[in-house]
TrEMBL record:
Pfam families: Cation_efflux (PF01545), ZT_dimer (PF16916). This is Cation transporter. InterPro entries: Cation_efflux, Cation_efflux_CTD, Cation_efflux_CTD_sf, Cation_efflux_TM, Cation_efflux_TMD_sf, CDF_Transporter. Keywords: Membrane, Transmembrane, Transmembrane helix, Transport. GO terms for cellular component: membrane. The chain crosses the membrane at residues 19-38, 86-104. It comes from Spirosoma terrae. Residues 222-294 form the Cation efflux protein cytoplasmic domain. The keyword Nucleotide-binding does not apply. The keyword Metal-binding does not apply. It is found in: Membrane. Residues 19-213 form the Cation efflux protein transmembrane domain.
Length: 295
């Protein structure tokens, strides 16, 4: 059996999509930052700041995937898979930090009168929303296909950027249509965006933290495992089961009930048969520890 580490092709796909996101964000930071400065829009500048955090967090995602793909060593006999959800948690914390910074600056701008943003900033934001949504959908699809919490987190970071841009678009539109007296609509939009970013950060953090804590993964594992185990002759039922996710792979502990009059050799053979049946039926499972319980 291979070392317990994420499958190379999965790690490679995750790394490739992450690098694409980094390159796109570098371009967007420059475009949004310059447009926000020239167009007098803090919402657009805040959007650029959010994209800048995308670059940093995407790098951590890439690093997490690289680390998770390393083979086990003496100090990490189960591999380095936990680096993957750790990277997702870094993304979530960075989002919270960016949201706080945006909120503080937005409140300051609301209290200080300023000019209405330039109309051309709307065109910039519209383009950003399209680019970011396309990027989100592409990376989220890869995250689902390779079952990576870090890649999914990276995708949601792009979605939060699209939402930030969308709220900025709405705020600037209100400011331009309303005219004098509505100058702060742009800043209120940035403040609203900071709340959305925090919500998305929780959306990223919760499943990743659960994985770090060896929380049972989503899905009806008990029914699936019982169905598979019961295909093995002389297996009567499942008494206990535990499932945990490490990187892209799953580890299972299973208690199988068999007739009490079987020999040790027969019980051993049944345990191996159950293990092989699960590994064949669920390729994402790396290892299965089967404990035989007499009826």
């Amino acid at each position: 059996m291979n070392s317990p580490t994420i499958e190379p092709h999965k790690a490679k796909r995750g790394e490739q999509t992450t690098l694409i996101g980094i390159f796109v964000n570098v371009a967007l930071v420059l475009v949004k930052g310059i447009a926000g400065w020239l167009g007098n829009s803090y919402a657009l500048i805040a959007d650029a700041m959010e994209s800048a955090t995308d670059i940093v967090t995407s790098f951590f995602v890439w690093l997490g995937l690289r680390t998770a793909s390393k083979a086990p060593d003496e100090d990490h006999p189960y591999g380095h898979g936990k680096a993957e959800p750790l990277a997702a948690i870094v993304v979530a914390l960075a989002l919270v930090g960016a949201a706080i910074l945006i909120a503080v600056q937005s409140i300051q701008n609301i209290r200080v009168p300023h000019e209405v943003p330039a109309p051309f900033t709307l065109a910039v934001l519209a383009g950003v929303v399209v680019v970011k949504e396309v990027l989100f959908r592409r990376i989220a699809k890869v995250g689902d296909e390779v079952d990576s919490s870090a890649v999914k987190a990276d995708a949601w970071h792009h979605r939060s950027d699209a939402i930030t841009s969308l709220t900025a678009f709405a705020g600037i539109s209100i400011a331009l249509i309303g005219g004098p007296g509505y100058e702060s609509a742009d800043d209120w939009a940035a403040l609203l965006a900071s709340g959305v970013i925090v919500y998305n950060a929780y959306h990223i953090f919760r499943p990743s933290f659960g994985e770090i804590m060896d929380e049972t993964p989503a899905g009806d594992w008990e029914a699936e495992l019982k169905s598979i185990a019961m295909t093995v002759p002389q297996v009567m039922d499942i008494e206990k089961f535990r499932v945990r996710k490490t990187g892209f792979e799953y580890f299972i502990d299973l208690h199988v009930i068999v007739p009490g009059d079987l020999t040790v050799s027969q019980g051993h053979a049944i345990a191996h048969a159950v293990k092989n049946a699960i590994l064949e039926a669920k390729p994402a499972v790396y290892d299965v520890l089967v404990h035989i319980e007499p009826a």
